[in-house]
Amino acid sequence: MKEAILSGKYPIDEKLPTETELMNRFNVSRYTIRRAVGDLESEHYIYRIQGGGMFVQDWHKDWSIDNDSKMIGVITTHIADYIFPQIIYGIDQMISEGGYSLLLGNTHNNHQKERKNLINMLNSKVAGLIIEPTQSALPNPNMDLYQEIKDDEIPVLFINASYPELDFPTVTTDDAGAERKIIDYLLDMGHESILGIFQVDDIQGVHRMDGFVKAYQQHPEISYKGNLVMYQSGDSFDKITQRVASALKSPDRPTAIACYNDQLAIRVLDYLKSNGFVVPQDISVVGFDNYQMSQYMSPGITTLNHEKEIMGEDTGKMMLSLLQKQPVTSIMYDPQLVVRESVASPKLLG
């Protein structure tokens, strides 16, 4: 019932179902219904009129920017691994200086889990929200909650990506331009047949794939040699390697593989080694994000930098400005190429 109220299914002052109707809907006792209704009433989500029934309370009052909440909600697709701890650390550094603390949520890139996190943040009466969109290239079923958040004027910042339906400020990376930069590097090294592997349910992956294509468009004489593997976050790595194995067996096999991120590049590197390929002597591999582990691989992975901690610090500063009702401008970083040992010219191959 609370989720239905928060998402706007039941507008302010609308009459709610009777106790009997709720008993039938949820298949519970009258005692259970009355306890739940009592909790909703004490939390100011509903009010009762003697002999008239239950109605939705004006709970928006609790969400005005003037409230005294000192909690900032941060929702990311992951928390404890990859580049996210450094981003969260940067956010916390800035937010704590302003007297705020963080409430963390993790969606695992799943829309239903994103919904639960949004409900939890609203229920916790956060002063602002910092969100990494979930499966940002796909239609989002949680727009009702986002519209409620927007209507309630809760400050929101998006990081790494955004939803096209919403105009909240963003802190992102020039994914298309950066990917074009690393593909240009491979082409300049003499690679003509490059396999790109991109996650296409996140807008970052779509943009990186776009950068891959744009790089080849500048070389029409060899553009037919480029090849793509597209996958979604829920796909198994086996599905990806089946496509990679097929490409490696073709007569015009790739001399380089460009991966969606370093996390994928590390797994591809391991797959190649386990199948008898030597990197970069047999095939080159590049990633994206400059994940800390990528420099310690053998060979070190050529990649594109991700600002990480700086992104977190800038996001934290922007959120403090929004909380003070100051205007902010979206930020887009230009990742720089990080050259390591995972790339060699195919002309040097034996």
Automatic annotation (TrEMBL):
GO MF, any single term: DNA-binding transcription factor activity
Gene3D superfamilies referenced in this protein's UniProt entry, alphabetically: 3.40.50.2300, Winged helix-like DNA-binding domain superfamily/Winged helix DNA-binding domain (1.10.10.10)
SMART domains: HTH_GNTR (SM00345)
Pfam family, one: GntR
Name assigned to this protein: Transcriptional regulator, GntR family
HTH gntR-type domain sequence ranges: 1-59
Keyword Cytoplasm in annotation: no
First and last residue of the signal peptide: none
Record-linked SUPFAM superfamilies: Periplasmic binding protein-like I, Winged helix' DNA-binding domain
Keyword vocabulary terms for this entry: DNA-binding, Transcription, Transcription regulation
